[in-house]
Amino acid sequence: MQAHKYTLAILTLFLVGQLSAQAAEPKANTTTETKAVEKAEEVVDELLGKKDKSGDVVTASKETLFITSKTAFTLEAKDDSSSIDYIEWKPKSGDYRRFTQPIRISEEGATEIHYRSVDKAGNAEIPKVLVVVVDNTAPRVNLLPAEQFFVLDGVPYTSKNNSYTIVAEDKNGVDKISYSINTEANKTYAEPIKLEKGGANVIKYAAADKSGNSSPESSLIITVDDMKPTVEIVPSLPLVDISGKAFAKRGNVFHVNAYDKESGVKKILIKLDAETEFRPYLEAITVEMQGEHTIRAIAIDNVGNQSDAVELKFNVDLTPPSSVIQKSDKVAEPAAVKPEETTPAPAQ
């Protein structure tokens, strides 16, 4: 009998997200995706050279399809001679059945679709197998800042130097992660995100897996504090200008005040005179040493912005003046004394 040639095509009616991801994926996704692909490849390897119940050798495609339970398959076949009588298929565990309507797989995980065609002369095609991974679960997505937020009145504050990593996890592998900043169009996530604009920013993000499942869009409002705090050194008593030099009065103390309108002041640091390192400002500064002095101060806010340094120079004079009394060579004349005026008594 003349050999027959068969061609069997398997098509998808509703197949989403089967292409490999073109964008770079975060490292956190690599493990789950690799395991899923390796598992599917193991199934294919087991099928290669394996015989079905009829003794025919099963052939399998090395390509693995990632699908959902909504994905449908249709079978088509052609025969150059006696034409096709019927096409049949079966799931991994089950018996062959005639193909009459699109095929759907409800069970999640790696599975197989066995299929073959028979012509009207009774020639049966060697069975073929398609390995599919059914996944109906959307990826889990998280946005992770490199630096922890400072939360004030429910508002997360951060510095302009912070960066943000979007991590998506899916048991069968993430296809892509997308995000947008403020009113910008969606982008494919490939590397940590930086926020360039000060003030409130909105990051929106989502992920899709290889089966086409998409996570709900998540969003996070982040306030970027790019304003430096201000700091001042204030004496309790005004300094006295003497010959162009500022002198502190005895008992004077110095207060250091700092202000920040965004995330708030975290700490104030000071240095006195020749000190090499700044130290925390804890209380008003008292200087009780003779000579010239310098107080330096800086402030740091709750997201790490540092103020410009300020300094105050002044002199302390703790030496009291010295007075002397001397005998004068000039004799002082006694003051003339006028007789007291009397008022005559009234006549009797």
UniProtKB/TrEMBL annotation:
Record keywords: Signal
Annotated signal sequence range: 1-23
Region of interest called Disordered, as start-end residue ranges on this chain: 321-348
Top-level taxon of origin: Bacteria
InterPro entries in alphabetical order: Ig-like_OmpL47-like
NCBIfam families: barrel_OmpL47 (NF047446), Lepto_OmpL47 (NF047441)
Protein name: Bacterial group 3 Ig-like protein
Species: Leptospira ognonensis
